[in-house]
Write a structure and sequence with these properties.
- The protein has about 475 residues and is an alpha+beta fold.
- Helix content is about 45%, strand content about 10%.
- It has a single domain (about 45-470), classed as Alpha/alpha barrel (Glycosyltransferase).
- The chain has 16 helices and 21 strands.
- Helix 4 packs antiparallel against helix 5, helix 5 packs across helix 7 and helix 11 packs antiparallel against helix 12 (about 335-355).
- It is globular, with a radius of gyration of 21 Å.
- The two termini are about 20 Å apart.
């Protein structure tokens, strides 16, 4: 995620939003002022940090090009690589995810290296099942964001081809909820046992594709899936996180703002933000009201979102995934800045304790339940959104600490790697740089620390994968 200053939830009368506009200018949201200017001395500090982020990106990219270009993910300790979607079927995931980040950082020589590989090598005629959700947010989103930034028709051609292949996962379902996997060549769909994130995280990528191709099938399919899930909500306006793609029936009772539900809520707001769809804003407001009424707990002065029974509101668990920390920024964007700030404060306490955030905690003890860290971007994402919403440099400082700790703990011979145990001294390293690292926190750091000339800070949109689909200044 994403975007410009929020509107006050429930207190703002939503005007008639603009429909789909020209390529690179989806929807309409009034421009807001950028965050307050810093003093010249402070500005120089942020500029130096931004330059550091840019140079680390350039260095890591050089290693990826030398050792793994065209493969999905580099293994930066061993200097090897691995594929993400299907064994033996590379699609250049890291290269595609990096394109708009390189563009925003004005690393144009590096950008051309990535674009050249995509032009010459990328094809989706692959006889293998690909996870629809991950393929959408990473590959389709990456191609669309690159098209938005550089305007190259070949990128839209590839995105359209991929969108057509993914659409089969929706049209094959009796109720319109996508299957989890689709064979990109044959269209065979598999695994209807799915979840909120994997049925509801398409509206912005599919919406952009509909806009830029003039074909409404994509956005219509994405919205239909969201509607099916939304209309099955409980009387408390809560939603369990697991659902069946062929029946639309819930497969469990537990509601969570973390995975595997998280980005469903994000894309309700984002779909309204990007496309001006008032239904999505109404659905977002309804569900967030249910969450804030039944799913908020203060524990020892900190605010958390426990797991609850979606039908009774009873608390069923007090674990918290690091991935849920994005919710702080979403709340701020949606208008509840105070609640978002308090939730980010809670996660900052975890950062203060561990340095690098563990994958999961028990918030009653702030103990690590899952001790690894997969180079996660969500805390920096929330800091970026809250900085935009408030202009308060405390969020820049938190993002700076997040960046500095990453350099300290994850930088290895050929790039940046995941951590397998953040509780050891030094932290125990793995051997993998996830594709999303190129698209997300590098971008969040850079845009937080510098006034990037290629971004419209007042009116832009970043997807759940950090892909820029609105606000590129060419």
């Amino acid at each position: 995620m994403r975007i410009s200053l929020p509107r006050r939830r429930f207190l703002t009368t939503l005007g008639a939003a603009a429909g789909l506009g020209a390529a690179g200018a989806l929807g309409a949201t009034p421009a807001h002022a950028a965050p307050m200017a810093s003093t010249s001395q402070t500005s120089r500090r942020w500029r130096r940090l931004a330059d550091d982020v840019r140079e680390e990106t350039r260095w890591a990219w050089r290693n990826y090009v030398e050792l793994a270009l065209g493969h999905d993910q580099i293994k930066p300790v061993s200097g090897t690589y691995e594929e993400f979607f299907a064994p033996g079927q590379p699609v250049g995931l890291s290269a595609v995810e990096a394109l708009d980040t390189l563009w925003l950082m004005e690393l144009d020589d590096e950008l051309e290296q990535g674009l050249s590989w995509v032009r010459s090598n990328l094809s989706f005629d692959i006889d293998a099942p690909f996870q629809v959700f991950e393929t959408n947010i990473r590959m389709l989103g990456g191609l669309l964001s690159a098209y938005h930034c550089v305007g190259e028709p070949r990128l839209l051609e590839l995105a359209t081809d991929l969108g057509d292949r993914l659409l089969t996962a929706f049209t094959s379902s009796p109720v319109g909820l996508p299957y989890r996997y689709v064979n990109l060549r044959t269209g065979e769909v598999t695994n209807p046992d799915t979840n909120l994130a994997e049925v509801g995280t398409y509206i912005t990528e599919f919406g952009a594709l509909s806009q830029w191709t003039g074909d409404p099938r994509y956005v219509d399919a994405a919205k239909r899936a969201m509607r099916v899930a939304y209309e099955a909500r409980s009387d408390l306006d809560l939603m369990p996180h697991d659902i069946h793609a062929e029946t639309g029936e819930w497969r469990n009772r537990v509601a969570t703002v973390g995975p595997p539900a998280d980005s469903f809520y994000e894309y309700l707001y984002d779909g309204w933000k990007l496309l001006g769809d008032d239904d999505l804003r109404t659905w977002y407001d309804t569900l967030i009201a249910g969450i804030t009424a039944h799913q908020v707990e203060e524990y020892e002065g900190r605010l958390w979102f426990p797991q609850v029974d979606a039908f009774t509101g009873e608390i069923t668990g007090r674990s918290q995934s690091e991935l849920a920390s994005f919710f702080s920024g979403l709340l701020a964007e949606g208008g509840d800045v105070a609640l978002g700030a308090r939730y980010h404060d809670s996660w900052n306490a975890v950062q203060d304790k561990f340095g690098v955030l563990p994958e999961g905690i028990d918030y009653t003890t702030l103990s690590a339940e899952s001790k690894g860290n997969q180079l996660r971007p969500e805390f920096a994402d929330g800091a970026f959104s809250l900085w935009l919403a408030t202009g308060d440099d405390v969020y820049r400082q938190r993002a700076a600490r997040h960046f500095e700790l990453m350099v300290e703990t994850s930088k290895v011979a050929h790039g940046y790697t995941i951590i397998s145990d953040v509780t050891t001294t030094p932290a125990t390293r793995g051997d993998l740089c996830p594709g999303y690292w190129w698209s997300e926190q590098l971008k969040y750091y850079y845009l937080t620390f510098v006034d990037a000339p290629r971004l419209d800070y007042a009116d832009h949109y970043l997807s759940t994968e950090g892909n820029l689909l609105k606000g590129a200044r060419r």
